[in-house]
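Structure first, sequence second, as always.
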């Protein structure tokens, strides 16, 4: 919490899926200083539906969410991983019934997963919903070399979800170019991704958009937040980043294709 305060971060995200995270945050008293974002299964501020549980109708889920809101259970309602068309249906259902409206959407977004730019972002803008980007360095893929990935470094064990998501010929070729761009920019390849998504991507802080930063250690968190203090990338660097997405977008299994 000391590091978060130092770098003027005011929000902490958690979930039941993150082991003891919720309990630790609760015991720490962080809620007195920070906004706490959490999720419900299948899916406080905001309470979030994190992808739809097909065993329960979305209408039933929304009815329940509004009841919890009316009881003071949370302050803001968020969605995660829904297709643009489903976001519109959810919004319209809530609006017609004068339910709490979703105001935050959490989705995957990074230089190798930019499908959200095509339809989702315009849908969210029209509905007044902010976008919170998770996996800004592609689960660590953009922080590693091709050799490290193929050796099974970190999460990238063959057969794992991260391997299936990211390890293909197009992405590995793009990763090599990404590291060359970072070298030209004089920064770490992970720093390049964080700064691009924070300052040079279509995300807009003035509209409430945000980047979700994860860390295993305090030192790692401090390093990442320090990188973000360096500000936007130069135009000539940004001009080399869009072609990286052009190279991988047709083969990317990630993102939304509504």
């Amino acid at each position: 919490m000391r590091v978060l305060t130092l770098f003027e971060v005011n929000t902490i995200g958690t979930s039941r899926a993150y082991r003891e995270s919720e309990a630790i945050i609760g015991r720490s008293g962080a809620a007195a200083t920070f906004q706490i974002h959490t999720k419900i299964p299948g899916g406080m501020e905001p309470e979030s539906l994190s992808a739809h549980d097909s065993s329960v109708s979305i209408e039933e889920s929304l009815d329940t969410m509004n009841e919890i809101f009316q009881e003071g259970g949370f302050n803001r309602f968020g969605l995660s991983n829904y297709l643009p068309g489903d976001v519109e249906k959810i919004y319209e259902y809530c609006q017609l019934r004068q339910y709490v409206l979703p105001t935050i959407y959490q989705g995957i977004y990074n230089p190798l997963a930019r499908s959200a730019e095509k339809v989702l972002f315009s849908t969210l803008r029209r509905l007044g919903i902010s976008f919170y980007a998770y996996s800004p360095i592609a689960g660590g893929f953009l922080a590693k070399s091709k050799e490290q990935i193929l050796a099974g470094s970190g999460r990238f064990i063959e057969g794992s979800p991260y391997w299936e998501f990211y390890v293909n010929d197009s992405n590995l070729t793009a990763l090599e170019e990404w590291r060359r761009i970072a070298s030209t920019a004089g920064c770490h390849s992970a720093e390049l991704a964080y700064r691009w998504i924070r300052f040079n991507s279509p995300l807009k802080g003035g509209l409430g958009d945000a980047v979700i930063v994860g860390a295993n250690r305090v030192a790692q968190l401090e390093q990442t937040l320090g990188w973000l203090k360096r500000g936007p990338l130069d135009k000539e660097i940004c001009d080399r980043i869009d072609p990286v997405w052009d190279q991988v977008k047709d083969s990317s299994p990630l993102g939304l294709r509504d």
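Margin note: The chain has a mean pLDDT of 85.
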